[in-house]
């Protein structure tokens, strides 16, 4: 198959959506498919241009058997509602000429668009139509509802109402629409997408790369925390994560000299969190670690903490959850009952209500004081990662779904010719 992937996040970004888009593209390339990628200059999660990137230039490179074109993009220092829309619109505009040149020069079997960025999705759908390809939209986040939940956009505003209409119109342009959890797939159907046109395409963990450590993590020593039980959050520091609850729990546990909180990551909320944690000696902020050190980072946790705002439930299933499970450490999450996070953490950790810092602190403290339970939950977490989140199984399933879709396209063309 010839596959054209369109998505705003890709390698060399090292977290979140970029990891999965890159992994998918390189997996398919290794299986003998021709894969080309149109993406933006790397900027996430720092929300600033990486060193050596930026400017009004298009950069082409070949990495992992994939041809990748990086397009210029507007990167707001403070990604508010309107600025964020402009950010995505700039990618739609800068990717348009690249996509048009590609479909003029050759045919594709599938144009696979990853949202974010939903704003750029119509450009990908247009490329599919011009190329005679099937159009596939993969939704990592429900961006519109997440913007409402975090207060970036008011649902009652003109922009909010237009955003809802744009989302529905855009989704209907695609032959397949996939997303990352059963709960999010149900939302697609609620939004008017026929059930048989939806697919659950999960994120995954490389369970051979992310394993329970059989030795102390060297990162603990580097941080001077070898004597501490560590509560770890690693990932994007943004609004929908509800990270204020983690700092609140740390404040309630600052009299526990044996417990320290480590927040690893970057994002628009980092400075606010650092200000909120000022004066707390049990909170340490560190940068994101490169992928080669991810197993050491996750393995230094005694307990992983996974917060989420109540209003953001089932608008996204945080990808960080999957590697937490693979690391073989128990998880304390904040989530409403029967949401995606709640269901995935069952048997592998503890779930408390979102925003309840007292309940979060008690859950962390009680778990750390019960090492047998910690070990039991950690083993269950690892087993769940192997059973449900293995990269080879998930991507082989996607390859089959893509082949089925292109087979349908071939049959349709044959019927038209006849």
From TrEMBL:
Which CDD domains does the entry link to?
GT4_WbuB-like
Spell out the SUPFAM superfamilies in the cross-references.
Answer: UDP-Glycosyltransferase/glycogen phosphorylase
Task: Return the protein name.
Answer: WcaI family glycosyltransferase
- InterPro entries membership: Glyco_trans_1, Glyco_trans_4-like_N, Glycosyltransferase_grp1
Organism name: Paragemmobacter straminiformis
Glycosyltransferase subfamily 4-like N-terminal domain spans which residues?
17-204
Keywords recorded for this protein, A-Z: Transferase
- Pfam families in alphabetical order: Glyco_trans_4_4, Glycos_transf_1
What is a GO molecular function of this protein?
A: hexosyltransferase activity
Q: Where is the Glycosyl transferase family domain?
A: 225-383
